[in-house]
TrEMBL record:
Keyword Signal recorded: yes
Function of the protein: Required for disulfide bond formation in some periplasmic proteins. Acts by transferring its disulfide bond to other proteins and is reduced in the process.
Residue stretches making up the Thioredoxin-like fold domain: 118-241
SUPFAM superfamilies the UniProt entry points to: DsbC/DsbG N-terminal domain-like (SSF54423), Thioredoxin-like (SSF52833)
Family in the record: Belongs to the thioredoxin family. DsbC subfamily.
Protein name: Thiol:disulfide interchange protein
Species for this entry: Azonexus hydrophilus
Range of residues in the leader sequence: 1-22
Location(s) in or outside the cell: Periplasm
Keywords per UniProt: Disulfide bond, Periplasm, Redox-active center, Signal
UniProt domain Disulphide bond isomerase DsbC/G N-terminal: residue ranges: 19-94
InterPro entries hit by this protein: DiS-bond_Isoase_DsbC/G (IPR033954), DiS-bond_isomerase_DsbC/G_N (IPR018950), DiS-bond_isomerase_DsbC/G_N_sf (IPR009094), Thiol:disulfide_interchange (IPR051470), Thioredoxin-like_fold (IPR012336), Thioredoxin-like_sf (IPR036249), Thioredoxin_CS (IPR017937)
Length: 245
């Protein structure tokens, strides 16, 4: 929604500007007035004299006169969006900043709404939001099984279809939720049994995901609160987990 709004206003912004010595407060005011959005932060990007604007879970960039914008987009939800790249150090600045700005406190996760799996001593922790019909989730599941000494919290997040919701409810209503989840996600054994128990946890997962702008599965959260989208390879999982104290 925001990207479409920015595109519509882009040409008009080329002709309308602030004073040449605009500061962050003036830029915030101008962007909010022109785009009708609430700006969370305005920061010098350190590149090309541009200012970084963070609003509605998205990053984009403007000059001090707000005459044009570089739409960074949300790389978490739109990995092919335009981004600001530091070519000297081969760094995706937009990606790094969004990971920082969208990080959470792991302790704030509603872990009682997740399926808990403890492997080994369980000292390392990882949370995933997954749709049972998500192909990438099934790929991730195979690598998760190879991890040792980790506690995995799986939040059922049916977003793909009504069948996803039905399967999520059946898994949650199972006497052994972890077994029902692994039977399905690893072995393709369709969950059976009832789906009419108290499944408010799934509804709360959906509401929580909306608040965090989680629109794709799998989405992972590590102990430091960093959000990582997609089926992360095993070596990356191990690298991230090894950083946990």
């Amino acid at each position: 929604m925001l990207v479409k709004t920015l595109s519509a206003f882009l040409l008009s912004l080329l002709a309308i500007g602030c004073s040449a010595n605009a500061n962050e407060a003036e830029i915030r005011k101008a962007v909010e007035a022109k785009l009708g959005i609430k700006v969370e932060s305005v920061t010098r990007s350190g590149y090309f004299g541009l200012y970084e604007i963070y609003a509605d879970g998205n990053l984009f960039y403007t000059d001090d006169k707000v005459t044009a914008m570089l739409i960074g987009g949300d790389v978490i939800r739109s990995p092919h969006a335009m981004n600001l790249i530091d070519l000297k150090n081969n760094r995706n600045v937009t990606d790094e900043r969004l990971r920082q700005l969208t990080a959470i406190k792991f302790s704030d996760l509603p872990l009682e709404q997740a399926i808990k799996q403890v492997k080994g001593d369980g000292k390392r922790v990882l949370a995933t939001f997954e749709d049972p019909n998500c192909g990438y989730c099934k790929r991730l599941a195979k690598d998760l099984q190879k991890l040792e000494n980790v506690t995995i919290y799986t939040f059922l997040l049916p977003i793909l279809s009504e069948d996803s919701l039905k399967k999520s409810r059946q898994i949650w209503c199972s006497a052994d939720r972890l077994k029902a989840w692994n039977d399905w996600i690893l072995d393709g054994k369709t969950p059976g049994g009832r789906d009419n128990c108290d499944t408010t946890a799934i509804t709360r997962n959906q509401e929580y995901a909306r608040r965090l702008n989680i629109t794709g599965t799998p989405t992972l959260f590590f102990a430091d609160g960093e959000r990582v989208p997609g089926a992360v390879p095993l070596n990356v999982l191990e690298q991230k987990l090894k950083q946990q104290k």
